[in-house]
Design a protein that fits this description.
single chain, 742 residues, alpha+beta, Beta-galactosidase, Chain A, domain 5, nine-stranded antiparallel sheet, seven-stranded antiparallel sheet, 30% helix, globular
């Protein structure tokens, strides 16, 4: 090992990988099929030391936006975990938990001793693959989750006719009493204790050979190829008046399966890729080229090295992985991404795999606007609207939420820290979560400039939330307004004037004032809220130069908590910024530096800190936080965030953080490359969005911006900044662009 000490770390890892694994690099065909591919030389393990499966840590995820699957990639025994994002226990009185739906097992006797194995997920076309050879026959599988068809589709082919013989069966995760064989298909309907009906269906299409059944299994013999169509659903509805229950899903699933069976696999695949790429291809990111040693490593090994030695293609992949996951688990018509996106192998998931509103759900949607996936936010807005009635009711009867005058709340709503999809909120009241949700509603307008959306959806919720805080703010002796009895998640005392609460309410009021101006309505109320905004207790600089977390100057410089709640005003807020409030920005960095990363920091914490340092224009610190995500303590082998256990907000947060390093627009101008680290020497970005209705393309070399193209969606003027260079663009017509060189 003394010899290895003199070698570069990348070479050491490559050498150790080759020594320690029976599937050597030399045996792996097509080592890299592209810089947007996660790949592995072995299946995900079914069990580790007799413990539960490692589905959430090692499998590859695919999803239509509503239903999804986790792929193990076993050879003799393949397993797919199946999910529907609306499969929840609980109701309006009990939070319950997000559930797993079913497992599909495909058994292939004789495939135990496979060679030349490869399992991968290609983000460029949302397609997963498993390839291996047995006795000279090459076996290939392809897995897609089609949003247009609302089907998960598996395609098994072989290099020799008659190569597939085996069986498959469904394992319903809730013990459905009936798993029926329907011709060459299976169906598994059931009902949860809360009355929610669910069903899983599949159909097998074979070329050559035969498909039959025995008991509740399908048997296939001598088939040249297999196409397996899977549909799933529940009777969940966004309609609160019907207790969030609609029609049983069976007939709809039958129609989806039958429609899919009428199309060739090539047609299904083509429709899937066209639909997916209509979203994914809106953005491209090039952060530089990685070394051949880095490219040659399977993803589980490569990520560990990327935590130490910069791997630009891996960092670009991480950015795009967050976009892939959001597309795959949050599409219009469905529910928003939960703590695990939509993927779940357990009926007892950590934190119920629910919606946490003290940062986690909000972080899920940080990238949707800048990373050009605005439509992926629609499920969140639909859920918020559907929950308002029970949220208002729960708020009105909570004595701890009485107005400042002591009366029950009659305007607006508040939230506890977590909630389900049936109107129930749970655990500790996080009073200002209502305002934080409003920020997401506002950002959709700020980037897209859709006034009809603002008027119909965002504005009414923002206004009632302002009314809630008009009724609940406490006036100090000098007339300053504070949030009473607040909290700085997830630590500290309950007290007045906590910075986290103050900053979020300021953000709500500020955005509401902008909304009244944009719509030209409620001028007098807008002025009232503007006055209240200006009377809010403002961010303060404490005795050791920090941005205070509390109204009183009592911050502990040795507090290394995972949350950085007192820095909301930096990101995702806009009250503190380098250009407009430089002293507060410097104090924010003092606080952020003091938080440290040695103890309590989690995957999502690193994502938030990546964005925070980027907003403070500290590129190297931001990049260091990004690289931390690749460590085994922060991410799984499949690059899911690892709290631990697994949760997905860090994936989405990292995508947002990288976007902030490249383009910022929260200060009323489009700031280009505000936090470009030295390791990203040359690169380009296409399709990143800026507030005001702009899309931006950039290219740089030798750590200097070369060119930028600003696309104007609505015809408004903008200010563009690069370092000390400031350019005002007045003449870009709607739908046109302006090219700039530097």
């Amino acid at each position: 090992m003394n010899i290895l000490k003199s070698l570069p770390l990348l070479i050491i890892c490559a050498v150790m990988y080759k020594i320690g694994d029976s599937q050597t690099l030399a045996k792996n065909p097509a080592i890299s099929s592209g810089n947007l591919t996660l790949w592995y030389d072995q299946p995900a393990k079914m069990k580790v030391e007799g413990k539960d499966s490692t589905a959430m840590n090692e499998t590859l995820p695919i999803g239509t936006g509503r239903i999804g699957s986790l792929i193990f990639g076993g050879t003799a025994s393949e397993r797919l975990v199946l999910n529907d994002q609306s499969l929840w226990t609980g109701d309006e009185k009990n939070e319950g938990s997000y559930q797993a739906l079913a497992n599909l097992f495909i058994n292939l006797p004789g495939h135990e001793n496979a060679v030349n194995y490869r399992r991968d997920l290609d983000l460029s076309n949302a397609t997963a693959h498993v390839n291996y050879s047995v006795n000279g026959i090459k076996y290939s599988r392809e897995y897609i989750a089609s949003n247009p068809a609302q089907l998960i589709v598996l395609r098994f082919t072989a290099s020799k006719p008659g190569g597939y013989s085996g069986s498959m069966n469904l394992n319903d995760m809730h013990g459905a009493k009936t798993i029926s064989v329907l011709g060459q298909g299976l169906t598994s309907p059931g009902t949860l204790p809360n009355g929610l009906k669910y069903e899983t269906r599949l159909k097998v299409l074979n070329v050559g050979g035969s498909v039959s059944s025995t008991g509740n299994k399908l048997i296939f013999k001598g088939c040249n190829s297999l196409t397996i169509l899977i549909s799933a659903g529940t009777n969940y509805s966004f309609d609160q008046k019907k207790n969030y229950h609609g029609q049983a899903p069976g007939e709809k699933l039958k129609q989806e399966i039958n429609a899919g069976a009428e199309k060739s696999y090539a047609m299904l695949r083509g429709e899937h890729i066209k639909d997916y790429q209509s979203l994914f291809n809106r953005m491209q990111l090039n952060l530089g080229k990685s070394s051949s040693e880095q490219q040659a490593m399977p993803t589980n090994i490569r990520k560990r090295v990327a935590a130490i030695n910069t791997d630009p293609e891996m960092e670009a992949l991480l950015f795009q992985y967050g976009r892939y996951l959001l597309i795959s688990c949050s599409r219009p018509g469905g529910l928003p991404a939960n703590l695990q996106g939509l993927w779940n192998d357990s009926n007892d998931a950590a934190w119920r795999s629910d919606y946490h509103d003290n940062i986690n759900l909000e972080m899920n949607y940080w990238p949707s606007e800048p990373a050009n996936l605005a439509s992926c936010s629609i499920p969140l807005f639909d859920l918020i609207q559907s929950q308002l009635v029970p949220w208002r009711k729960a708020t009105a009867v909570a004595p701890e939420l009485n107005t400042i005058s002591g009366h029950p709340t009659s305007r607006g709503f508040a939230l506890r820290t977590s909630h389900n999809i049936f109107g129930h909120t749970d655990w500790k009241w996080d009073k200002t979560a209502n305002a934080w949700y409003c920020q997401l509603l506002w950002e959709h307008y700020a980037f897209g400039q859709e006034k009809d959306y603002l008027k119909r959806i965002a504005y009414p919720i923002m206004k009632e939330t302002c009314e809630f805080w008009e009724d609940h703010l406490k006036a100090l002796a000098d007339g300053t307004f504070v949030v009473p009895d607040g909290w700085s998640p997830e630590h500290g005392p309950m007290e007045d004037g906590v910075s986290y609460n103050q900053q979020i309410v300021w953000d709500l009021f500020n955005n509401y004032v902008d909304a009244t101006s944009a719509l030209g309505i409620d001028e007098s109320y807008g002025k009232k809220i503007a006055d209240m905004r200006d009377r809010l207790l403002s961010p303060k600089i404490g005795k050791w130069g920090q941005l205070q977390e509390w109204m009183e100057d009592k911050d502990d410089p040795n507090d290394h908590h995972r949350h950085t709640s007192n820095l909301f005003a930096v990101f995702p807020g806009r009250q503190v910024s380098v250009v407009k409030t430089p002293a507060l920005a410097r104090a924010a960095k003092v606080s952020l530096d003091a938080r440290d990363t040695s103890q309590d920091t989690r995957e999502w914490s690193f994502a938030w800190r990546t964005a925070l340092y980027a907003r403070l224009h500290h590129a190297e610190n931001s990049h260091a936080m990004l690289k931390q995500f690749f460590k085994d303590r922060n991410s799984c082998e499949n690059l899911f965030g690892l709290h631990p256990p697994m949760q997905m907000d860090g994936n989405f947060g990292m995508t947002a953080g990288i976007a902030e390093m490249l383009v910022q627009s929260h200060e009323g101008e489009i700031n280009l490359l505000p936090a470009l680290p030295s390791d990203w020497k040359s690169g380009s970005v296409v399709g990143i969005r800026a507030r005001g209705g702009f899309t931006v393309d950039l290219s740089w070399a030798n750590n200097r911006l070369i060119a930028a193209t600003i696309y104007n969606v609505n015809g408004s003027a903008c200010i563009v900044r690069y370092g000390d260079t400031v350019i005002t663009l007045n003449g870009i017509k709607k739908g046109k662009s302006k090219q700039l060189t530097f």
